[in-house]
């Protein structure tokens, strides 16, 4: 899938996620991921671990001297609880991360709406438009390198462009991070992002908390858990530009990294492609106006 990030070096396919990893475990897992070869780390304000992510990245840079001069990228996200004050939220994220200038910084709008508001309320559209103007301004100031969104569907992307594309400061989201897996293949969104050069990143490739797809697909294909994980990651990596994977186990951190660099057989890919149900285990923003 083609993607464009202006003059930025292409982003990696492998991204290490930190959802539900806290404290020392988070710092050690991120450090291990960097040791394995991940060069992109994903966090968010709502994950409550940005400080630990920043510590791990700085420690790795200090201890290894980054001899290959690899570009390290860190994504964070403004939560729906903070959307009405996006500028303060974004600056707080950057402060908690405290990353050196050599690290590429990405900020996303985590959700296309405001927390605790009914989905039909116009406040969602107004808030994300205002927040997007803030992110465009932060990028212009050089405080962040890449800006984007998360959990936006085609409707939200089109509406953002319709509302704001005539503004002199506007630039379209460079990234959209969404739930994607064998039961939620996001084909319409894939086509739209491809046509508009928006980098599409998948999260929850194993089905979210508890990795339920490991067992569902394992049973359907008669695979053990390890083989199911490999197949699921390889399949979704072929459907998008990048995949967020997570683990606290060094062996799995490494295995996930390697699996994202492989492809399933054509026969297996065809079988998996027929398992799409448009089923979300995580957030589904389809009703947010």
UniProtKB/TrEMBL annotation:
Origin, by domain of life? Eukaryota
Q: Where is this site: Lowers pKa of active site Tyr?
A: 77
The active site is formed by 47
Enumerate the spans annotated as NADP-dependent oxidoreductase domain.
32-208
Q: Which SUPFAM superfamilies match?
A: NAD(P)-linked oxidoreductase
Molecular function (GO) terms for this protein are: oxidoreductase activity, acting on the CH-OH group of donors, NAD or NADP as acceptor
Amino acids binding substrate = 110
Tell me which UniProt keywords the record has, alphabetically: NADP, Oxidoreductase
Q: Which InterPro entries match?
A: AKR (IPR020471), NAD(P)_OxRdtase_dom_sf (IPR036812), NADP_OxRdtase_dom (IPR023210)
Q: Among its keywords, does the record have Electron transport?
A: no
Q: Into which family does the record put it?
A: Belongs to the aldo/keto reductase family.
Q: What is this protein called?
A: NADP-dependent oxidoreductase domain-containing protein
